UniProtKB/TrEMBL annotation:
<dbReference type="InterPro" id="IPR015919">
    <property type="entry name" value="Cadherin-like_sf"/>
</dbReference>
<dbReference type="GO" id="GO:0005912">
    <property type="term" value="C:adherens junction"/>
</dbReference>
<protein>
    <recommendedName>
        <fullName>Cadherin-12</fullName>
    </recommendedName>
</protein>
<feature type="transmembrane region" description="Helical">
    <location>
        <begin position="530"/>
        <end position="561"/>
    </location>
</feature>
<dbReference type="Pfam" id="PF00028">
    <property type="entry name" value="Cadherin"/>
</dbReference>
<keyword id="KW-1133">Transmembrane helix</keyword>
<dbReference type="GO" id="GO:0016342">
    <property type="term" value="C:catenin complex"/>
</dbReference>
<dbReference type="GO" id="GO:0016339">
    <property type="term" value="P:calcium-dependent cell-cell adhesion via plasma membrane cell adhesion molecules"/>
</dbReference>
<dbReference type="InterPro" id="IPR039808">
    <property type="entry name" value="Cadherin"/>
</dbReference>
<dbReference type="GO" id="GO:0016477">
    <property type="term" value="P:cell migration"/>
</dbReference>
<dbReference type="GO" id="GO:0044331">
    <property type="term" value="P:cell-cell adhesion mediated by cadherin"/>
</dbReference>
<dbReference type="GO" id="GO:0005509">
    <property type="term" value="F:calcium ion binding"/>
</dbReference>
<dbReference type="GO" id="GO:0007043">
    <property type="term" value="P:cell-cell junction assembly"/>
</dbReference>
<dbReference type="InterPro" id="IPR020894">
    <property type="entry name" value="Cadherin_CS"/>
</dbReference>
<dbReference type="InterPro" id="IPR027397">
    <property type="entry name" value="Catenin-bd_sf"/>
</dbReference>
<keyword id="KW-0597">Phosphoprotein</keyword>
<dbReference type="Pfam" id="PF01049">
    <property type="entry name" value="CADH_Y-type_LIR"/>
</dbReference>
Length: 718
């Protein structure tokens, strides 16, 4: 109830209400100020409401007092039962656990006010699941209540848990949940054989490694606790058999380690032990976790194929052995009680098998064709033996025939060698290591020997040093070699083998003379390289090439500019009739340009020139031929040139032009005189070129070229 001191009870004051739930949850009487709840309240939904109230004048609508705030609290009652929010629960505990072993803790939640009364105080109890489990009434911890609960007796338990508020008193609300508890396995049971003796029957034809029977021990445990290991106890017949565990069925699989023979032994007896792999030390007192059973195996007689005396046969035969020669024999027997005869034949698979034949009764193997070791060094084929009484029973054996070598091929150099020697080589220097190969199959200890042929042993150039390990070295015998004198040397080497009969061959090595530096590194082996300058690096060569390219570009630009200038000059000359001057800046074509003029007159003044129209210029008017007086015998070329110059000066048909001609004429005052050998009265052999050595290092190559007296002979064999 709200009331203002200014309210005289005459209806002049009006009360208003605002805030949480005003108008929806709470309402106020505007005249009396009474506050009422217009619907049910739930503390769990909203525990309190904050409202504001004010007294207002009815006429002026103005507040008579400041607004006041107050809180309405909802008082709790026990209207909510405890709930297990995480239920139902699943838990597990090992079997054979002691009393009080922890299983699980459950928790129930009550939505009522825990600070008011006992509405939210929860107590736990078990409605179903006793006497196996117990629960703490305050904490909700579930524990085992009985000792030695056995999983093999009962594995699953369902426990019903109740949570009750009001401290468990009468009138309290309660909630329940279920807990499913599983007993997990422990290894508390040893394996046991269901019977003490197992009987097995095994055919004697069973293959080694095959399974011949199964036995099983029973273990009531589960998972890895039920894994069993089987072992054969050492004793009678146990060495012929083996036993393993099938990981899926936990059965003992008995396998054959050695072949059985009914004629040798008809029965075997041995013991098998079954034990757990994973033991639990808590249960050792129960007894040994293993069991033993006896296995009796009876061998069944079977009709068996023939048996060869050896698992494989190896034979040897020399190549080129005559056809029909016996090289060996195979033997097979029928070991059954009623022994039967055996027949032999070759298992034909390819054409290689046709090189041999076999006697069907005796089993002897003979050659059917001539054998060549170089073609096929080994033959591998199979022989089949069958019983006459039962041809379907067959056995097979592998036969290897090695073809022995007969020394028929001489040894040769194994690979072609590219041998070179430096010009500055010293005597005794090894320039090449050579090896040999023989197409024959070299027997153990065979060696190759190397030597020079008889015609080359007296030459002073090279020698062969046999290292006696199937290799040899080529050594120099001279102090230096000259490429200009002889570029190639041909060295015949004789190679012999050590087989009988001895085979030998002569192999020719080609040795090339090369230019090397002081350390012996080859720089050039080509003939052209003799005339090339030495000492230029790659960078220097690139720089020279760049300079040449730049010079070519400059020359091309220069020629193009000159032609353009000539064209402009000609056009100007044609337009200007007052000065009909034509400029020629072209140089003559040289000796190869035979169309411009005949240079023969310069070489032989006796030649009488024919009157020809010049082809290097285009005259404006037709030139008339004129006769020139012939040059006298022994006239000097200078006089000839002056004569021609005077003729052109007085010729009115020839336009003035500049013509530059270069003549191969050496003046009379030259100190060096002519270097040409034309018209020389002496031969090259009569010349003395020793003075070239005095001109310095730049003329060293020229001095070497003309300084040697001995001529070059490429066909010389040394």
């Amino acid at each position: 109830k709200l009331h203002s001191d200014l309210d005289k009870g005459v209806g002049t004051v009006k009360y208003t209400l605002s805030g949480d739930g005003a108008g929806t949850v709470f309402t106020i009487d505007e005249t009396t100020g009474d506050i009422h709840a217009i619907r049910s309240l739930d503390r769990e939904e909203k525990p309190f409401y904050t409202l504001r109230a004010q007294a207002v004048d009815v006429d002026t609508k103005k507040p008579l007092e400041p607004e006041s705030e107050f809180i309405i609290k909802v008082q709790d009652i026990n209207d909510n039962e405890p709930k297990f929010l995480d239920g139902p629960y699943v838990a597990s505990v090992p079997e054979m656990s002691p009393v009080g072993a922890y299983v699980l803790q459950v928790k129930a939640t009550d939505a009522d006010d825990p600070t008011y009364g006992n509405s939210a105080r929860v107590v736990y109890s078990i409605l179903q699941g006793q006497p196996y489990f117990s629960i703490d009434p305050k904490t909700g911890v579930i524990r085992t209540a009985l000792p030695n609960m056995d999983r093999e007796v009962k594995e699953q338990y369902q426990v019903l848990i109740q949570a009750k508020d009001m401290g468990g008193q009468l009138g309290g609300l309660a909630g329940t949940t279920t807990v499913n508890i599983t007993l997990t396995d422990v290894n508390d049971n040893p394996p046991r054989f269901p019977k003490s003796i197992f009987h097995l029957k095994v055919p004697e034809s069973s293959h080694v490694g095959s399974a011949i029977g199964r036995i099983r021990a029973v273990d009531p445990d589960f998972g890895k606790n039920a894994e069993i290991e089987y072992n054969i106890v050492p004793g009678d017949g146990g060495n012929l058999f083996d036993i393993t565990t099938d990981e899926y069925t936990q059965e003992g699989v008995i396998k054959l380690k050695k072949p059985l023979d009914f004629e040798t032994k008809k029965a075997y007896t041995f013991k098998v032990e079954a034990s757990n792999l994973h033991l639990d030390h808590r249960f050792h007192s129960v007894g040994p976790f293993k069991d033993t059973a006896t296995v009796k195996i009876n061998v069944l007689d079977m009709d068996e194929p023939p048996v060869f005396s050896k698992p494989m046969y190896t034979m040897e035969v020399y190549e080129d052995t005559p056809v029909g020669t016996i090289i060996g024999a195979v033997t097979a027997q029928d070991l059954d009680a009623g022994s039967s005869s055996v027949r032999y034949f070759i298992d034909w698979k390819n054409d290689v098998d046709s090189y041999f034949t076999i006697d069907a009764t005796e089993g002897t193997i003979a050659t059917n064709e001539l054998l060549d070791r170089e073609s096929t060094a080994q033959y591998n084929f199979s022989i089949i033996a069958s019983k006459v009484s039962n041809p379907l029973l067959t056995s097979k054996v592998n036969v290897i025939v090695n073809v022995l070598d007969v020394n028929e091929f001489p040894p040769e150099i194994s690979v072609p060698y590219e041998t070179s020697v430096c010009e500055n080589a010293k005597p005794g220097q090894v320039i090449q290591i050579i090896t040999a190969a023989d197409k024959d199959l070299s027997p153990a200890g065979q060696r190759f020997s190397f030597k020079l042929s008889s015609e080359a042993s007296n030459k002073p150039n090279f020698t062969v040093h046999d290292y006696r390990n199937n290799t040899a070295g080529i050594e120099t015998r001279r102090n230096g070699y000259s490429r200009r004198q002889q570029e190639l040397y041909f060295l015949p080497v004789v190679i012999e083998d050590s087989s009988y009969p001895v085979q030998s061959s002569t192999n020719t090595l080609t040795i090339r003379v090369c230019r090397c530096d002081s350390e012996g590194t080859i720089q050039s082996c080509n003939v052209e390289a003799i005339f090339l300058p030495v000492g230029l690096s790659t960078g220097a060569l690139i720089a020279i090439l760049l300079c040449i390219v730049i010079l070519l570009v400059i020359v091309v630009l220069y020629v193009a500019l000159r032609r353009q200038k000539k064209k402009d000059t000609l056009m100007t000359s044609k337009e200007d009739i007052r000065d009909n001057v034509i400029h020629y800046d072209d140089e003559g074509g040289g000796e190869e340009d035979t169309q411009a003029f005949d240079i023969g007159a310069l070489r032989n003044p006796k030649v009488i020139e024919d009157n020809k129209i010049r082809r290097d210029i285009k005259p404006d008017t037709l030139r008339f031929p004129r006769h020139r007086p012939p040059a006298e015998d022994n006239t000097d070329i200078r006089d000839f040139i002056n004569q021609r110059l005077q003729e052109n000066d007085v010729d009115p048909s020839a336009p003035p032009y500049d013509s530059l001609a270069t003549y191969a004429y050496e003046g009379n005052g030259s100190v060096a005189e002519s270097l040409s050998s034309i018209d020389s009265l002496t031969t090259e052999a009569d010349q003395d070129y020793d003075y070239l050595s005095d001109w310095g290092p730049r003329f060293k190559i020229l001095a070497d070229m003309f300084g040697e007296e001995e001529s070059y002979n490429p066909d010389k064999v040394t």
